[in-house]
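ok new one. same drill as before - C-alpha coordinates go in, u give me an amino acid for every spot. 404 of them this time. try not to just spam alanines like last time pls lmao
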Protein backbone atom coordinates (compact mmCIF):
# COMPACT_ATOMS: atom_id res chain seq x y z
CA UNK A 1 0.00 0.00 0.00
CA UNK A 2 1.34 3.46 -0.87
CA UNK A 3 1.70 6.32 1.61
CA UNK A 4 -1.50 7.79 0.20
CA UNK A 5 -3.63 4.68 0.60
CA UNK A 6 -6.38 4.92 3.18
CA UNK A 7 -9.05 2.49 4.29
CA UNK A 8 -12.50 4.07 4.25
CA UNK A 9 -14.30 2.87 7.38
CA UNK A 10 -17.54 1.85 5.71
CA UNK A 11 -19.52 0.97 8.80
CA UNK A 12 -18.60 4.03 10.82
CA UNK A 13 -18.41 6.49 7.93
CA UNK A 14 -15.22 8.13 9.20
CA UNK A 15 -11.81 8.60 7.64
CA UNK A 16 -8.47 7.46 9.00
CA UNK A 17 -7.09 10.95 9.39
CA UNK A 18 -8.70 14.25 10.24
CA UNK A 19 -6.37 16.67 8.48
CA UNK A 20 -8.22 19.89 9.29
CA UNK A 21 -8.27 19.87 13.10
CA UNK A 22 -6.75 22.89 14.81
CA UNK A 23 -6.08 24.75 11.56
CA UNK A 24 -5.87 28.55 11.68
CA UNK A 25 -7.21 30.41 8.69
CA UNK A 26 -6.26 33.64 6.98
CA UNK A 27 -8.87 36.22 6.03
CA UNK A 28 -7.29 36.77 2.62
CA UNK A 29 -8.28 34.10 0.09
CA UNK A 30 -5.97 33.46 -2.84
CA UNK A 31 -7.17 33.98 -6.42
CA UNK A 32 -7.19 30.21 -6.97
CA UNK A 33 -9.28 29.79 -3.81
CA UNK A 34 -11.67 32.48 -5.03
CA UNK A 35 -12.10 30.60 -8.30
CA UNK A 36 -12.72 27.36 -6.41
CA UNK A 37 -15.29 29.02 -4.16
CA UNK A 38 -17.10 30.27 -7.24
CA UNK A 39 -17.22 26.69 -8.48
CA UNK A 40 -18.20 24.86 -5.27
CA UNK A 41 -19.51 27.55 -2.93
CA UNK A 42 -18.18 30.02 -0.37
CA UNK A 43 -15.79 28.54 2.17
CA UNK A 44 -14.90 25.42 0.18
CA UNK A 45 -11.35 26.74 -0.16
CA UNK A 46 -9.67 28.78 2.59
CA UNK A 47 -6.07 29.93 3.01
CA UNK A 48 -4.57 28.84 6.32
CA UNK A 49 -2.37 31.00 8.53
CA UNK A 50 0.59 29.00 7.22
CA UNK A 51 -0.35 29.97 3.67
CA UNK A 52 -1.69 26.57 2.62
CA UNK A 53 -4.96 26.11 0.76
CA UNK A 54 -7.46 24.06 2.78
CA UNK A 55 -10.28 22.42 0.78
CA UNK A 56 -13.60 21.02 2.00
CA UNK A 57 -16.26 20.18 -0.62
CA UNK A 58 -18.51 17.46 -2.02
CA UNK A 59 -18.40 15.60 -5.34
CA UNK A 60 -21.16 13.35 -6.69
CA UNK A 61 -19.86 10.22 -8.43
CA UNK A 62 -21.36 9.47 -11.83
CA UNK A 63 -21.67 12.91 -13.42
CA UNK A 64 -20.71 12.86 -17.10
CA UNK A 65 -21.25 15.27 -20.00
CA UNK A 66 -21.14 13.40 -23.35
CA UNK A 67 -20.60 15.44 -26.51
CA UNK A 68 -21.05 13.61 -29.81
CA UNK A 69 -19.22 15.19 -32.76
CA UNK A 70 -20.60 13.84 -36.01
CA UNK A 71 -19.05 14.26 -39.43
CA UNK A 72 -22.12 15.32 -41.43
CA UNK A 73 -20.41 15.49 -44.81
CA UNK A 74 -21.14 13.12 -47.69
CA UNK A 75 -20.55 9.36 -47.33
CA UNK A 76 -21.33 9.43 -43.58
CA UNK A 77 -25.07 8.65 -43.51
CA UNK A 78 -24.62 4.86 -43.24
CA UNK A 79 -22.27 5.28 -40.29
CA UNK A 80 -24.66 7.70 -38.60
CA UNK A 81 -27.50 5.20 -39.00
CA UNK A 82 -25.36 2.45 -37.48
CA UNK A 83 -24.60 4.68 -34.52
CA UNK A 84 -28.35 5.28 -34.14
CA UNK A 85 -29.06 1.53 -34.24
CA UNK A 86 -26.51 0.74 -31.53
CA UNK A 87 -27.24 3.69 -29.27
CA UNK A 88 -29.99 1.97 -27.18
CA UNK A 89 -27.47 -0.48 -25.74
CA UNK A 90 -25.08 2.35 -24.94
CA UNK A 91 -27.72 4.42 -23.16
CA UNK A 92 -28.95 1.34 -21.29
CA UNK A 93 -25.40 0.85 -20.01
CA UNK A 94 -25.17 4.39 -18.57
CA UNK A 95 -28.76 4.54 -17.29
CA UNK A 96 -27.62 4.94 -13.66
CA UNK A 97 -25.24 7.80 -14.44
CA UNK A 98 -26.06 11.50 -14.19
CA UNK A 99 -25.50 12.08 -17.89
CA UNK A 100 -26.01 14.94 -20.32
CA UNK A 101 -25.80 14.34 -24.08
CA UNK A 102 -25.42 16.88 -26.88
CA UNK A 103 -24.51 16.67 -30.58
CA UNK A 104 -22.49 19.00 -32.80
CA UNK A 105 -21.10 18.59 -36.33
CA UNK A 106 -17.60 18.85 -37.79
CA UNK A 107 -18.76 21.80 -39.97
CA UNK A 108 -17.28 25.21 -39.09
CA UNK A 109 -17.58 28.49 -40.96
CA UNK A 110 -13.86 29.13 -40.53
CA UNK A 111 -13.31 26.81 -43.49
CA UNK A 112 -12.84 28.76 -46.74
CA UNK A 113 -16.06 29.42 -48.68
CA UNK A 114 -18.18 27.86 -45.94
CA UNK A 115 -20.57 30.60 -44.88
CA UNK A 116 -24.02 29.67 -43.50
CA UNK A 117 -26.13 28.14 -46.26
CA UNK A 118 -29.08 25.84 -46.85
CA UNK A 119 -27.07 22.67 -46.36
CA UNK A 120 -25.70 23.60 -42.93
CA UNK A 121 -29.06 24.82 -41.68
CA UNK A 122 -28.12 28.44 -42.44
CA UNK A 123 -25.48 28.14 -39.75
CA UNK A 124 -27.55 26.19 -37.19
CA UNK A 125 -25.52 23.02 -37.86
CA UNK A 126 -22.04 24.50 -37.62
CA UNK A 127 -19.61 26.35 -35.34
CA UNK A 128 -20.17 24.21 -32.24
CA UNK A 129 -23.91 24.88 -32.00
CA UNK A 130 -25.81 22.07 -30.31
CA UNK A 131 -28.26 20.40 -32.69
CA UNK A 132 -31.85 20.56 -31.49
CA UNK A 133 -33.48 17.23 -30.64
CA UNK A 134 -37.09 16.47 -31.69
CA UNK A 135 -38.26 17.32 -28.14
CA UNK A 136 -37.11 20.93 -28.71
CA UNK A 137 -34.14 20.67 -26.33
CA UNK A 138 -30.45 20.80 -27.18
CA UNK A 139 -29.41 18.46 -24.35
CA UNK A 140 -30.70 15.02 -23.33
CA UNK A 141 -30.58 14.04 -19.66
CA UNK A 142 -32.38 11.80 -17.18
CA UNK A 143 -31.37 12.83 -13.64
CA UNK A 144 -34.27 10.99 -11.99
CA UNK A 145 -33.65 7.76 -13.94
CA UNK A 146 -37.13 7.70 -15.44
CA UNK A 147 -37.85 4.65 -17.62
CA UNK A 148 -40.21 6.59 -19.89
CA UNK A 149 -37.75 9.46 -20.36
CA UNK A 150 -35.01 6.91 -21.01
CA UNK A 151 -36.98 5.50 -23.93
CA UNK A 152 -37.73 8.96 -25.28
CA UNK A 153 -34.06 9.94 -25.06
CA UNK A 154 -33.18 6.93 -27.18
CA UNK A 155 -35.66 7.91 -29.87
CA UNK A 156 -34.63 11.57 -29.83
CA UNK A 157 -30.95 10.65 -30.22
CA UNK A 158 -31.64 8.16 -33.02
CA UNK A 159 -33.66 10.73 -34.93
CA UNK A 160 -30.90 13.34 -34.59
CA UNK A 161 -27.57 11.55 -35.03
CA UNK A 162 -28.56 10.31 -38.52
CA UNK A 163 -28.23 13.59 -40.37
CA UNK A 164 -30.64 14.43 -43.23
CA UNK A 165 -28.08 16.81 -44.75
CA UNK A 166 -25.63 13.88 -45.08
CA UNK A 167 -28.30 11.81 -46.85
CA UNK A 168 -29.13 14.75 -49.15
CA UNK A 169 -25.44 15.09 -50.01
CA UNK A 170 -25.23 11.40 -51.01
CA UNK A 171 -28.45 11.56 -53.02
CA UNK A 172 -27.34 14.68 -54.92
CA UNK A 173 -24.09 13.05 -56.03
CA UNK A 174 -22.21 15.31 -53.58
CA UNK A 175 -23.54 18.54 -55.03
CA UNK A 176 -25.76 19.71 -52.15
CA UNK A 177 -23.56 19.19 -49.11
CA UNK A 178 -22.31 20.63 -45.83
CA UNK A 179 -18.59 21.30 -45.63
CA UNK A 180 -16.28 18.43 -46.56
CA UNK A 181 -13.52 20.16 -44.56
CA UNK A 182 -14.04 18.15 -41.36
CA UNK A 183 -12.92 20.09 -38.27
CA UNK A 184 -14.13 18.17 -35.24
CA UNK A 185 -11.57 19.58 -32.80
CA UNK A 186 -12.17 23.11 -34.05
CA UNK A 187 -15.93 22.60 -33.54
CA UNK A 188 -15.46 21.41 -29.94
CA UNK A 189 -13.34 24.48 -29.18
CA UNK A 190 -16.11 26.64 -30.62
CA UNK A 191 -18.72 24.76 -28.57
CA UNK A 192 -16.72 25.63 -25.44
CA UNK A 193 -16.78 29.30 -26.48
CA UNK A 194 -20.53 29.51 -26.96
CA UNK A 195 -22.27 31.12 -23.98
CA UNK A 196 -25.50 29.19 -24.57
CA UNK A 197 -23.59 25.91 -24.04
CA UNK A 198 -22.13 26.88 -20.66
CA UNK A 199 -24.58 24.90 -18.53
CA UNK A 200 -23.79 21.70 -20.44
CA UNK A 201 -20.14 21.75 -19.39
CA UNK A 202 -20.72 21.23 -15.68
CA UNK A 203 -18.03 22.03 -13.13
CA UNK A 204 -16.55 18.81 -11.83
CA UNK A 205 -17.35 15.36 -13.15
CA UNK A 206 -16.18 14.16 -16.55
CA UNK A 207 -16.49 15.34 -20.15
CA UNK A 208 -16.47 12.55 -22.75
CA UNK A 209 -16.13 13.65 -26.38
CA UNK A 210 -17.12 11.04 -29.01
CA UNK A 211 -16.20 11.80 -32.61
CA UNK A 212 -17.56 9.86 -35.60
CA UNK A 213 -15.70 10.59 -38.84
CA UNK A 214 -14.26 8.81 -41.86
CA UNK A 215 -11.60 11.51 -42.29
CA UNK A 216 -9.18 13.41 -40.06
CA UNK A 217 -9.12 16.98 -38.78
CA UNK A 218 -9.17 19.23 -41.88
CA UNK A 219 -9.82 16.03 -43.82
CA UNK A 220 -6.13 15.10 -44.05
CA UNK A 221 -4.82 16.09 -40.64
CA UNK A 222 -2.75 19.01 -41.91
CA UNK A 223 -0.90 16.91 -44.47
CA UNK A 224 -0.73 17.65 -48.18
CA UNK A 225 -3.40 15.90 -50.22
CA UNK A 226 -2.79 15.18 -53.88
CA UNK A 227 -5.35 15.06 -56.62
CA UNK A 228 -6.88 11.58 -56.35
CA UNK A 229 -6.73 11.49 -52.56
CA UNK A 230 -3.26 10.03 -52.04
CA UNK A 231 -0.59 11.77 -49.93
CA UNK A 232 1.61 14.04 -51.98
CA UNK A 233 5.29 12.99 -51.86
CA UNK A 234 7.15 15.82 -50.09
CA UNK A 235 10.02 15.64 -52.58
CA UNK A 236 7.69 16.15 -55.55
CA UNK A 237 7.26 19.91 -55.91
CA UNK A 238 5.19 19.46 -59.08
CA UNK A 239 2.54 17.35 -57.36
CA UNK A 240 -0.92 18.89 -57.76
CA UNK A 241 -2.00 19.37 -54.17
CA UNK A 242 -4.11 21.44 -51.88
CA UNK A 243 -2.88 22.34 -48.43
CA UNK A 244 -5.13 21.88 -45.43
CA UNK A 245 -3.03 23.43 -42.65
CA UNK A 246 -4.07 22.93 -39.06
CA UNK A 247 -4.95 26.21 -37.39
CA UNK A 248 -4.82 26.86 -33.66
CA UNK A 249 -8.35 25.60 -32.94
CA UNK A 250 -7.65 22.39 -34.93
CA UNK A 251 -4.81 21.32 -32.65
CA UNK A 252 -5.17 18.77 -29.82
CA UNK A 253 -2.97 20.94 -27.59
CA UNK A 254 -5.39 23.86 -27.89
CA UNK A 255 -8.36 21.72 -26.89
CA UNK A 256 -6.56 20.26 -23.86
CA UNK A 257 -5.40 23.70 -22.74
CA UNK A 258 -8.85 25.18 -23.27
CA UNK A 259 -10.71 22.55 -21.28
CA UNK A 260 -8.22 22.89 -18.42
CA UNK A 261 -8.59 26.68 -18.39
CA UNK A 262 -12.36 26.92 -18.84
CA UNK A 263 -13.91 23.88 -17.16
CA UNK A 264 -12.47 24.18 -13.67
CA UNK A 265 -9.68 22.45 -11.82
CA UNK A 266 -11.68 19.28 -11.04
CA UNK A 267 -13.07 18.52 -14.53
CA UNK A 268 -11.54 15.59 -16.41
CA UNK A 269 -11.84 15.07 -20.18
CA UNK A 270 -11.51 12.14 -22.57
CA UNK A 271 -11.75 11.85 -26.35
CA UNK A 272 -13.15 8.74 -28.03
CA UNK A 273 -12.67 8.41 -31.79
CA UNK A 274 -14.56 6.15 -34.19
CA UNK A 275 -12.40 6.71 -37.25
CA UNK A 276 -10.23 5.12 -39.89
CA UNK A 277 -7.68 3.84 -37.41
CA UNK A 278 -4.09 4.77 -38.31
CA UNK A 279 -2.49 1.88 -40.17
CA UNK A 280 -5.77 0.06 -40.92
CA UNK A 281 -5.22 -0.29 -44.67
CA UNK A 282 -8.28 -2.47 -45.20
CA UNK A 283 -10.61 0.11 -43.66
CA UNK A 284 -8.89 2.87 -45.63
CA UNK A 285 -9.51 0.94 -48.85
CA UNK A 286 -13.17 0.41 -47.96
CA UNK A 287 -13.65 4.12 -47.34
CA UNK A 288 -11.85 5.03 -50.57
CA UNK A 289 -14.01 2.65 -52.61
CA UNK A 290 -17.42 4.27 -52.05
CA UNK A 291 -18.33 4.82 -55.67
CA UNK A 292 -17.56 8.54 -55.90
CA UNK A 293 -14.42 10.20 -57.21
CA UNK A 294 -14.59 12.90 -54.50
CA UNK A 295 -14.97 10.58 -51.54
CA UNK A 296 -11.96 9.09 -49.77
CA UNK A 297 -11.22 7.88 -46.29
CA UNK A 298 -8.33 9.31 -44.33
CA UNK A 299 -6.47 7.93 -41.33
CA UNK A 300 -7.61 9.76 -38.19
CA UNK A 301 -4.09 10.53 -36.97
CA UNK A 302 -4.93 13.83 -35.23
CA UNK A 303 -8.09 12.49 -33.58
CA UNK A 304 -6.18 9.40 -32.42
CA UNK A 305 -3.65 11.67 -30.69
CA UNK A 306 -6.41 12.78 -28.31
CA UNK A 307 -7.83 9.29 -27.79
CA UNK A 308 -4.42 7.77 -27.12
CA UNK A 309 -2.55 10.79 -25.73
CA UNK A 310 1.18 11.03 -25.24
CA UNK A 311 2.64 11.91 -21.85
CA UNK A 312 3.29 15.44 -23.14
CA UNK A 313 -0.38 15.90 -24.00
CA UNK A 314 -1.51 14.38 -20.70
CA UNK A 315 0.73 16.79 -18.81
CA UNK A 316 -1.00 19.84 -20.32
CA UNK A 317 -4.32 19.47 -18.52
CA UNK A 318 -7.04 17.14 -17.26
CA UNK A 319 -7.02 14.81 -20.28
CA UNK A 320 -7.50 11.08 -19.69
CA UNK A 321 -7.01 8.23 -22.20
CA UNK A 322 -10.01 7.38 -24.35
CA UNK A 323 -10.96 4.75 -26.92
CA UNK A 324 -10.08 4.46 -30.61
CA UNK A 325 -12.67 2.47 -32.58
CA UNK A 326 -13.02 1.61 -36.26
CA UNK A 327 -15.44 3.48 -38.53
CA UNK A 328 -15.48 0.29 -40.64
CA UNK A 329 -16.95 -1.85 -37.87
CA UNK A 330 -20.02 -3.75 -39.09
CA UNK A 331 -21.83 -2.30 -36.10
CA UNK A 332 -20.65 -0.13 -33.22
CA UNK A 333 -21.59 -2.44 -30.34
CA UNK A 334 -17.96 -3.07 -29.40
CA UNK A 335 -16.91 0.54 -29.91
CA UNK A 336 -19.72 1.93 -27.75
CA UNK A 337 -19.19 -0.82 -25.18
CA UNK A 338 -15.51 0.05 -24.89
CA UNK A 339 -16.39 3.76 -24.59
CA UNK A 340 -18.93 3.00 -21.83
CA UNK A 341 -16.30 1.00 -19.92
CA UNK A 342 -13.76 3.81 -20.24
CA UNK A 343 -16.29 6.43 -19.14
CA UNK A 344 -17.19 4.31 -16.11
CA UNK A 345 -13.51 4.08 -15.22
CA UNK A 346 -12.91 7.79 -15.72
CA UNK A 347 -15.88 9.00 -13.66
CA UNK A 348 -14.80 6.86 -10.71
CA UNK A 349 -11.66 9.00 -10.38
CA UNK A 350 -11.91 12.41 -8.71
CA UNK A 351 -9.51 15.09 -9.92
CA UNK A 352 -7.89 17.28 -7.24
CA UNK A 353 -6.88 20.82 -8.27
CA UNK A 354 -3.42 20.55 -6.70
CA UNK A 355 -0.94 18.18 -5.04
CA UNK A 356 -2.18 17.58 -1.47
CA UNK A 357 0.15 17.62 1.51
CA UNK A 358 1.07 14.26 2.96
CA UNK A 359 -1.40 12.98 5.56
CA UNK A 360 -3.98 15.75 5.16
CA UNK A 361 -6.35 13.86 2.89
CA UNK A 362 -9.69 13.06 4.54
CA UNK A 363 -12.34 11.27 2.48
CA UNK A 364 -15.84 10.21 3.56
CA UNK A 365 -18.83 9.19 1.50
CA UNK A 366 -22.53 8.46 1.66
CA UNK A 367 -24.45 6.28 1.42
CA UNK A 368 -22.19 3.70 3.04
CA UNK A 369 -21.45 0.39 1.36
CA UNK A 370 -21.53 -3.03 2.96
CA UNK A 371 -17.94 -3.67 1.84
CA UNK A 372 -14.58 -2.05 2.36
CA UNK A 373 -13.49 0.62 -0.08
CA UNK A 374 -9.93 1.87 -0.31
CA UNK A 375 -8.76 5.08 -1.88
CA UNK A 376 -5.46 6.31 -3.23
CA UNK A 377 -4.17 9.62 -4.61
CA UNK A 378 -2.14 8.94 -7.74
CA UNK A 379 0.64 10.91 -9.44
CA UNK A 380 -1.94 12.89 -11.45
CA UNK A 381 -3.60 14.09 -8.21
CA UNK A 382 -6.65 11.93 -8.82
CA UNK A 383 -8.46 10.09 -6.04
CA UNK A 384 -9.13 6.52 -7.13
CA UNK A 385 -11.33 4.03 -5.29
CA UNK A 386 -11.03 0.26 -5.08
CA UNK A 387 -13.59 -1.04 -5.75
CA UNK A 388 -15.21 1.89 -7.55
CA UNK A 389 -17.97 3.72 -5.71
CA UNK A 390 -21.49 3.36 -7.15
CA UNK A 391 -22.91 6.17 -9.27
CA UNK A 392 -24.78 8.67 -7.13
CA UNK A 393 -22.42 8.39 -4.15
CA UNK A 394 -21.68 11.73 -2.49
CA UNK A 395 -18.00 12.07 -1.58
CA UNK A 396 -16.68 14.67 0.86
CA UNK A 397 -13.05 15.67 0.34
CA UNK A 398 -10.86 17.54 2.83
CA UNK A 399 -7.16 18.20 2.23
CA UNK A 400 -4.51 20.91 2.12
CA UNK A 401 -2.23 22.00 -0.69
CA UNK A 402 0.75 24.37 -0.60
CA UNK A 403 -0.30 27.83 -1.76
CA UNK A 404 0.79 28.43 -5.34
Amino acid sequence: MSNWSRLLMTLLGVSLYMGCSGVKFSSKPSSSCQNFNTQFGDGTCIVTEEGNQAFDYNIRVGEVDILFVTDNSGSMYAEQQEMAHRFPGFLDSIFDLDYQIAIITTDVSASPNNAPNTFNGNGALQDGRFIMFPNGASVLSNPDQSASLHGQNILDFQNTIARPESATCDQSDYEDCPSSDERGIYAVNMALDRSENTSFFRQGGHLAIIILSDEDERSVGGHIKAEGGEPCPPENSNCLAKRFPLEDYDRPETLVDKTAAQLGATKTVSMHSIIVKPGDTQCKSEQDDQGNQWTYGEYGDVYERLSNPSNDLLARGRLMPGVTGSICSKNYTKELGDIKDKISQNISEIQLPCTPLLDTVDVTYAPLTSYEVRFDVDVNNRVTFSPSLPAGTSVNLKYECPRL
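The two ends are 29 Å apart (CA to CA). and btw The chain has a mean pLDDT of 88.
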